Each structure stands twice: as C-alpha cells, then as structure tokens.
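Structure catalogue
Derive tokens from sequence
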Amino acid sequence: MKIELLFLAFAAYIILQLVSLRVLRGHWRSAAVVSAVIGALISAYTIVAFILASNLWPLMLLLSAPWMLLYVVALLVLNALAGATSASNGNRSSQPKP
C-alpha cells in the first residue's frame, strides 16, 4: 500500500471519527469514544516519536490508520443498519391489522 494512501486513511479516520462522535448516541457513542481514545494515544505516541527524532516516527500511525478507519466505518454502517431495522419494525407494529 502506498504511503500517501495510509496518510489519507488517517485523515479520513479523523473526519469520520468526529462525525461519529457527533451523530451516534448511546452504546454506539461509547464504541466511538473507545476508538477516539485509541486514536488519540496512537497520535500522541507518533508526536513523541517525532519530537525524539525517531526515523520511524510515523510507523505506528500508518500501520494502524486503515484498521481504525475500518472500525469507524463499520460502526457507522452497523448503526445505520440497526436504525433502519428498528424503524421498519416500528412501522410494522403501528399499522392496523386487516
């Protein structure tokens, strides 16, 4: 995988993480907060490695970015599917029976 795509994956993760924290509620939001904490810890580790002039400073960030992005995307998709399922179940129960 190209390095540029890995950096873009991290940028997309940051954007989707902020969206998920704003949109999700309840247990879904708790799952998003766990992802945000892990992302913040990895970002802090990357910043410290950069300050210490490590030549491998972006390695942890680049290797974890696709997985963090996949987690947030899956969280948003599953939340949307759960919302659609509960909405369709609610419509069926509210319709009068013939």
